Amino acid sequence: MIALHLPVPKQVEQYLEVQAQLPHSYQPVGATAWPGPVKGFNNDRLRVELGRGGGDFERAKAAIRRWRMFPDGWTQILPEAVPIRNNEVVAMYARSLGLWWRNACRIVYVVDEPGRFGFAYGTLPGHIERGEELFQVLLDANDTVWYEIRAFSLPRHWLAWLGYPLTRYLQEKFRQDSAAQMQAFVRNPEAL
């Protein structure tokens, strides 16, 4: 769960083989699709403007397809280039206090419709938290492109409870950094 360095691909593969067989570590699975808060969890939301028009919307969709909403430098999705489709399992690594924290997630649902694209993934037992997170981009009737994150979570591991203020700070930092990275990619398509 905690390491000084990111693992080699074989270690990630072995870890995900085990996690893929396990159920989600929370209920209700799929609740980020609901409009309101999920009772009994911390509910978080961020929505930022990315740009205007179909071109910006397509660039934002491409960024999500490539998992580029994860902030460079302190987060990493492994294996890289996992397709965005139901039931795909990934390891999400986050760096804090000089250590890499390994977390397992499974894609719960995918949204791919006119004016809306994204997915939600939920935690597996190999995650320090329990809950679900939705990443989506929207093109509204005014031709504005939005990036939205909706999540509900609670600490699962004792270290997350012990460091609860730090956990909440890192969740907020992730949302802010993710939004900034999405804005940068929409402005600079070559960065993808």
Shape: globular
- Based on secondary structure, the structural category is alpha+beta
Number of helices, counting only DSSP H or I runs of 4 residues or more: 4
Roughly what fraction of the amino acids lie in strands? 35-45%
Q: What is the number of E strands?
A: 8
Order of helices and strands: EHEHEEEEEEHH
Q: In the CATH classification, which architecture applies? A: 2-Layer Sandwich
CATH homologous superfamily (4th level) name: START domain
Helix content: 25-40%
Span from first to last CA? 29 Å
Estimate nothing, just give the exact number of structural domains.
1
Task: Please characterize this protein's 3D structure.
With 192 residues, the chain is an alpha+beta fold. The protein has a single domain, classed as 2-Layer Sandwich (Alpha-D-Glucose-1,6-Bisphosphate, Chain A, domain 4). Helices cover 28% and strands 37% of the residues. The protein is built from four helices and eight strands, in the order E-H-E-H-E-E-E-E-E-E-H-H. Strands 1, 2, 3, 4, 5, 6, 7 and 8 form an eight-stranded antiparallel beta sheet that branches. Strand 7 and strand 8 form a beta hairpin.
List keywords for this structure.
single chain, 192 residues, alpha+beta, Alpha-D-Glucose-1,6-Bisphosphate, Chain A, domain 4, 8-stranded antiparallel beta sheet, 4 helices, 8 strands, 37% strand
Secondary structure: elements and pairs:
Elements: E1 2-3, H1 9-20, E2 42-52, H2 53-65, E3 75-78, E4 89-96, E5 99-113, E6 116-123, E7 129-139, E8 144-155, H3 158-162, H4 164-187
Antiparallel strand pairs: 1-5, 2-8, 3-4, 4-5, 5-6, 6-7, 7-8
